[in-house]
Amino acid sequence: MTFLPLPPPGQTPLRVMTIAGSDSGGGAGIQADMRTFAMLGVHGCVAVAAVTVQNSVGVKAFHELPLDIITGQIQVVVEDIGVQAAKTGMLASAEIIGAVADTWRGLGADIPLVVDPVCASMHGDPLLHPSALDSVRTELFPIATLVTPNLDEVRLITGIDVVDEATQRDAAKALHALGPAWALVKGGHLRSSERSPDLLYDGTDFYEFGEARIDTGHDHGAGDTLAAATATALAHGYPVPDAVAFGKRWVTECLRAAYPLGHGHGPVNPLFRLSRDA
Ligand code: PXL
Predict the structure, then answer these.
(1) Is residue 177 part of a domain?
(2) R_g over Cα of the chain
(3) Pyridoxamine kinase/Phosphomethylpyrimidine kinase domain: which residues (predicted)?
(4) Alpha-carbon span 33 to 184, nearest angstrom
(5) Is the CB of residue 33 below 6 angstroms from any atom belonging to ligand 1?
(6) Which of 42, 82, 163, 178 is most deeply packed, by most CB within 10 A?
């Protein structure tokens, strides 16, 4: 795969912020985002929204941070360090979504924002209060450059059960109607082929992305990693379809290198680049 250009040593890299939850098991959430940012040569900044108590088997509990601490992290970083793109992950509650959206709008800056509307862990443990779904639709989606729900999240947000190409298109249209500039419907395990086509829509045109599907039991953090790599490509000024294509290739390589961890699901592995160089 082709990589993004790295800054020369000593030169300030591009900055990308994740507004998301911490995974104590280190596989998903902020920890996954920061690994991808680092391996792609950008400086990652963080607004922690919630802390999960989690291992490879499941999420036992989570704690939401105070609203002023979450929004404060965004404000001080953007004011001083500056970011060229951002992504959201686990935001846990309607109150957090509302505060993040207000803060983001208040910045008045034209910074690309990738919204990964995380609702549950891969184990099925909730990471978003069900009462927050309306805020996802009305507060979060309208400020997004790109939204990247998986099929479960599509069902929760739009009510559409994606079972084939036609319903995938319907879902892309329904997501786009909620206000993001672009909507990506991740195909996941939609079709029983070796490919997992994702569908991108900007209100006019559809773009299809089909990378080889990697069947691994270890795909914890795959959605986060796709969104983080896509946000990184947007920070570099890639147009959205090219950024999504890059993110998709990146997560595919991370899936190829995924490893077992603990007794449950292991994480995708953005460090594949290091092990190949070694
Ligand atoms: O992969 C989605 C995700 C995002 N953020 C946090 C998570 C998970 C999945 O478990 O724990 C904090």
Answers:
(1) yes
(2) 17
(3) 23-269
(4) 19
(5) no
(6) 42
204 Cα–ligand 1 center, Å: 32
51 lines ligand 1 (CB under 6 A): no
Bridge partner list, 47: 19
* 9 falls within a domain: no
Distance 74 CA to ligand 1 centre (A): 20
Determine if ligand 1 sits within 6 Å of the CB of residue 243: no
Take atom 4 of ligand 1 and give the residue whose Cα is closest: 29
pLDDT score of 216: 86
Domain count, the chain: 1
**181, 166 contact by CB (below 8 A):** no
**233 in a structural domain:** yes
The runs of H, that is alpha helices, within the chain are 29-39, 67-80, 94-107, 133-135, 151-158, 165-176, 222-235, 240-256, 272-277
Please tell me the residue having the least CA distance from ligand 1 atom 6.
29
Q: What is the per-residue burial (b if ≥16 Cβ within 10 Å, else e) of 70-88?
A: bbebbeebbeeeebbbbbb
Q: Does residue 278 fall inside a structural domain?
A: no
Q: Which domain holds residue 138?
A: 15-271
pLDDT at 2: 79
Q: How far is the CA of 28 from the centre of ligand 1 (A)?
A: 5
Name, in order, each residue with C-beta under 8 angstroms of 167's C-beta and a sequence gap of 6 or more.
160, 161
pLDDT of residue 192: 57
Mean pLDDT by runs of 10 across the 278 residues of the chain is: 89 98 98 98 98 96 98 98 98 98 96 97 92 98 98 96 94 98 88 73 96 87 98 98 97 96 96 72
Cβ of residue 224 lying under 6 Å from some atom of ligand 1? yes
pLDDT of residue 217: 87
Q: What is the CATH number of the domain that holds 64?
A: 3.40.1190.20
DSSP 115: E
The pLDDT assigned to 194 comes to 59
